Amino acid sequence: MKILYWLFVFLGSAVLLSKSVIGHHAYNANYTDERGSIEGVVVEVFWGNPHVHYYLQVTNNDGSQSLWNLESENLGMMTRAGWTIDTLQVGNRIRVFGSLGREGRPRLAMELNSVEFLD
User: Under DSSP, is residue 115 helix (H, G, I), strand (E, B) or coil?
Assistant: First the structure.
C-alpha cells in the first residue's frame, strides 16, 4: 500500500511539474513549408524565452504597411549561435529568409544565418 501511495505522489508531481512542457508548440503549428523573404525595419525586439521575437515594419507592394512577427530560437540557442540582444536593433533595415506563416499571417520563422543588413 505504501508503494502505491508513493507512486501516486510521484506521478501527481510529475504531471504538475510538466505543465509548461505540454503547452509548448512545434513550428509546424504556425508555419508552412513554404520559404520566403521579407524586407523591412525592426521596430521592436523581444529578447526572452520561449523564443526571441523581432517585429518588422514592412512596406507592401501597394505602399501600405504591415507588421511582421519574426520568430527565432530560444535564448540559449541564440547565444550559442553568437547572437546577443544587440545583434538586431530597433531601426535596423534588414532582409531575412524563413518559413512563412500559415493562412497568410504576417509571420516568419527566421533562419539566423539569412539576415542581411540593408543600411
Answer: coil
